């Protein structure tokens, strides 16, 4: 994803700075005393802010990260070899800002707001990338569900608007797929989406953008891209820029979903910068403030009270583990900050259970408060039944003879496992999830072989869509399952099962 060749970072930032009307201010100059690997030391530049833009000669910009008595440590926002010892450096008295507002919808931008899709971007409002998190008294409890369209998650690990739900797992276990499917599910809702790619391959980012375009999701989505070839400073800024863009929507009372893909690479970029700035290394060579790195980002996700606009930012941070080790440094840090985690297991993925959600280690600390009444009604004991099945399945391997009750429980558990299997890019609506769980709850799927459940579910949904249009409209509009609607669904499911059994 190449940058606009006609506009460098320096010229772009200079244009943004000059576009503001400011009173004349005199600045003292500093001098570069040391440089290397995109990090510079500046002597004699006092009175700077943390995160302030610094202007070097030849129109190159950097960002102040170390504020010391005898100088400033800064990182360059572009990979450049033209900054040398002795060059003059001037402060700008402005921190890094990004554009916010509706002009960003459907666009692909970098972490300082430059368009990467070849079209000009004109924004009237800007916000700093780093801002304080909303006060506790300005928030309200998370009580509005955010549908992911993934049956296993919406039924057992519900996510609410304003929640921070971590997606964690090994490489190639479907973490990004869950996040992208959740974005696709927000079509025809009032939720705006921001996908933030940190240190990803250009080909991977392009693939995600194409997937969003094909499904009509770019109309309500902004992509913030910091590729693997970008400087560590740009990768470091990416999630904060995405969060600032989300705050622009939240300030207008809107609901926003932000995906940070992924914070493991963000921590590595910050470690790179910190080591080059000669900060003391700690555990695994990360600096001591690496916890604060992510806490000040994720705490900005909130569900605001009505007096403060009533908007929300829902965060789906992604963390990549190695060998399923969720007790290593960065995963444990982010788990302690977030409101729950969706743990994807490598063994489940390779055994064909996709999404490979480990329901034993996955949890939502908001719980049923963020679940629609219809989903509450049909998903009551799913987690217990699934855990009992997996425990019993282990013991049943050792012996061939099982009693009738155990055999029935094993069959139902196997049916439920296959019911949770879901293809990529095919999220369910709330009505479809309620139908499938209602069929399972009342035992109507027990008549089928477990390996046929996916095919049966597809046919069942087609049948119910045709025969329960009024119930579908009511459930989708209200989120509730009345007794009359439940009776109508059960009758329709029973008719489908009878027809399917006769055909066999």
Question: If you had to describe this structure to a student in words, what would you say it looks like?
Answer:
The protein has 504 residues and is α/β, with parallel strands linked by helices. The protein folds into 3 domains: 9-95, Elongation Factor Tu (Ef-tu), domain 3; 99-131 and 160-370, Rossmann fold (3-Layer(aba) Sandwich); 377-503, Up-down Bundle (Lysin), CATH 1.20.150. The protein contains 16 helices and 16 strands. An 8-stranded mixed beta sheet has the order 8-12-11-13-14-10-15-16, sandwiched between helices. A 6-stranded antiparallel beta barrel has the order 1-2-5-4-3-6. Strands 7-9 form a two-stranded antiparallel sheet. Strand 4 (61-68) and strand 5 (71-76) form a beta hairpin. Helix 5 (232-250) packs across helix 6 (263-276) and helix 11 crosses helix 12 (404-419). The radius of gyration is 26 Å and the shape is elongated. It starts with 8 loop residues before the first helix and ends with a helix. The model has no long low-confidence stretch (mean pLDDT 90).
Question: What key attributes describe this structure?
Answer:
Rossmann fold; 504 residues; elongated; 3 domains; 6-stranded antiparallel barrel; 8-stranded mixed sheet; alpha/beta; Lysin; Elongation Factor Tu (Ef-tu), domain 3
Describe, in short, the structure shown.
With 504 residues, this protein is α/β, with parallel strands linked by helices. 38% of the residues lie in helices and 19% in strands. The relative contact order is 0.11.
């Amino acid at each position: 994803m190449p940058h606009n060749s006609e506009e460098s970072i320096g010229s772009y930032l200079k244009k943004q700075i000059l576009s503001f009307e400011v009173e004349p201010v005199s600045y003292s100059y500093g001098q570069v005393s040391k440089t290397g690997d995109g990090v510079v030391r500046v002597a004699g530049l006092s009175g700077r802010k943390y995160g302030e833009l610094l202007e070097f000669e030849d129109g190159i910009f950097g960002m102040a990260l170390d504020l010391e008595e005898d100088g400033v440590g800064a990182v360059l926002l572009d990979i450049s070899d033209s900054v040398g010892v002795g060059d003059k450096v001037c402060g700008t008295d402005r921190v890094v800002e990004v554009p916010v507002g509706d002009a960003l919808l459907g666009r692909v931008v970098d972490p300082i707001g430059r368009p990467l899709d070849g079209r000009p971007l004109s924004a009237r409002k800007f916000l700093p990338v780093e801002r304080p998190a909303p006060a506790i008294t300005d928030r309200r409890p998370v009580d509005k569900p955010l549908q992911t369209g993934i049956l296993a998650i919406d039924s057992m690990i519900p996510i609410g608007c304003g929640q921070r739900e971590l997606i964690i797992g090994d490489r190639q276990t479907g973490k990004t797929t869950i996040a992208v499917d959740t974005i696709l599910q927000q079509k025809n809702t009032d939720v705006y989406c921001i996908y933030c790619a940190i240190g990803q391959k250009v080909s991977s980012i392009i693939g995600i953008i194409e997937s969003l375009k094909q499904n009509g999701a770019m109309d309500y989505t902004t992509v913030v891209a910091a590729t693997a070839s970008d400087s560590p400073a740009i990768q470091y800024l990416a999630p904060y820029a995405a969060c600032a863009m989300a705050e622009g929507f939240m300030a207008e009372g809107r609901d926003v979903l932000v995906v940070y893909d992924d914070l493991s690479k963000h921590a590595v970029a910050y470690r790179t910068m910190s080591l080059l700035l000669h900060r003391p290394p700690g555990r695994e060579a990360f600096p001591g403030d690496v916890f604060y790195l992510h806490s000040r980002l994720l705490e900005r996700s909130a569900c605001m009270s009505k007096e403060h606009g009533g908007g929300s930012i829902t965060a789906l941070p992604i963390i990549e583990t190695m060998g399923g080790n969720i007790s290593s440094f960065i995963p444990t840090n982010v788990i302690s900050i977030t409101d729950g985690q969706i743990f994807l297991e490598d063994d489940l993925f390779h055994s064909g259970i996709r999404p490979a959600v480990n329901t034993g280690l996955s949890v939502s600390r908001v719980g049923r408060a963020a679940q629609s009444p219809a989903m509450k009604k049909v998903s009551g004991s799913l987690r217990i039944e699934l855990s009992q099945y997996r425990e019993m399945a282990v013991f049943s391997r050792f012996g061939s003879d099982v009693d009738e009750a155990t055999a029935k429980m094993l069959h139902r558990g196997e049916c439920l496992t296959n019911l949770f299997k879901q293809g990529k890019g095919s999220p369910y609506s709330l009505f479809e999830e309620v139908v499938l769980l209602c069929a399972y709850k009342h035992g109507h799927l027990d008549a089928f072989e477990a390996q046929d459940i996916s095919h049966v579910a597809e046919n069942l949904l087609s049948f119910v869509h045709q025969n329960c249009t009024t119930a579908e409209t009511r459930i989708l509009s209200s989120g509730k399952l009345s007794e009359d609607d439940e009776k109508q669904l059960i009758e329709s499911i029973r008719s489908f099962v009878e027809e399917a059994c006769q055909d066999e």
